[in-house]
Amino acid sequence: MKSFWKHFFLDNGDISLIEAGLQKYVPNQINNYKVKHDIVFHIVLQGKGYYTVNDNHYELNAGESFILKKNQRVYYLPDDNDPWTICWIGMGGSNLNTYLSHSIIPSKDVLTFEDDSMVLEEMKQFIYFLSQSDSNDSQDALHIFSNLYRFIFLLNEEFPLKNNQNNGYALTEPRLAEKIYEYIYAHFFNDLTINDITKEFNISRNYVFKLCKEHYGQSPKQIIQELRMNQASQLLRGSNSQVKEIAALVGYKDPFSFSKMFKDYYGHSPSQFRKLSEEEIDKALFIREEFLGSRVNKG
Q1: Is the Cα torsion angle 7, 12, 16, 17 positive or negative in sign?
Q2: What's 275's DSSP letter?
Q3: What is the three-class DSSP state of 83?
Q4: What is the CA radius of gyration of the chain?
Q5: Which of 123, 209, 264, 280 is buried deepest, with most CB atoms within 10 A?
Q6: What secondary structure letter does DSSP report for 134?
């Protein structure tokens, strides 16, 4: 992959992607500055180098990561004889710190990945996608946010705050509910089922339902449907993709089932929704709120 450096500044009100890049360094290429972004993950893909932060000095090799955090003074450079190639993702957002608080990330300067690390593989694939993506394209933006949530989720899984937290019952209920929501957000555009969630967290269907209802006021299925409908409405208004393509992008194999659910939510078919004025959109959103309220009241 060729070197690149992109600024994105994509923010959905929850988390944001600020920048990403990949670079093969040359000897004596030094970085020395105060970090402006909330957090920047760097991964060493090849070679080795050196990282200094808070008077701590680290020698890093391929398969290791160093983390930059806002307002830190950082200093890093490649090894003269075997200069590193690194990739990075800069992130932010109002809830990023909350999500990362489930992991050891806030207290660490560096991370070491296992050979079969899902985080490492996910970031490599994500970086490749970002190098080819167009942040102004609504479908690419959807893909980017889905990958961001998945990346955070995998970080929490691979570097949990405590060891042996694969059993969902080991977490407090609020944190487990948040992790379930993160998992749903990262996978809602796939053929996601309740069984997938129970297997991921090793908990019962009844407990998944209880947590979602108590913390989000909806069943897992309702959360999945709402995420799909929200994304579909944005894609309908912000892209020229066909309805059947949008249905597939948000997780529906059958365009007819998608169109029926969309009309239940908004009071308009997908094709009609595309043609609405802003005032008519407001009315459609009001209809959706009534629809959601009726579902919650029905339990």
Answers
A1: negative
A2: T
A3: strand
A4: 21
A5: 123
A6: -
DSSP string, 11-45: E-SS-EEEEEEEEE--TT--EEEE--SSEEEEEEE
Q: Which residue has the tokens 């365009």?
A: 255
Q: CA 214, 217, 219, 224: dihedral to nearest 10 degrees? A: -130
Look at residue 58 and tell me whether its pLDDT is greater than 50. Answer: yes
pLDDT in tens, 176-225: 888 898 889 888 888 888 999 988 888 888 889 988 988 888 899 999 98
pLDDT digits (tens, 9 = 90+) for 263-286: 888 888 999 888 888 777 766 665
Q: How many CB atoms lie within 10 A of CB 245?
A: 13
Note the pTM of the prediction, 2 decimals: 0.58
d(C-alpha 262, C-alpha 139), whole Å = 18
What one-character-per-residue DSSP string does 171-234 give?
S-HHHHHHHHHHHHHHHTTS---HHHHHHHHT--HHHHHHHHHHHHSS-HHHHHHHHHHHHHHH
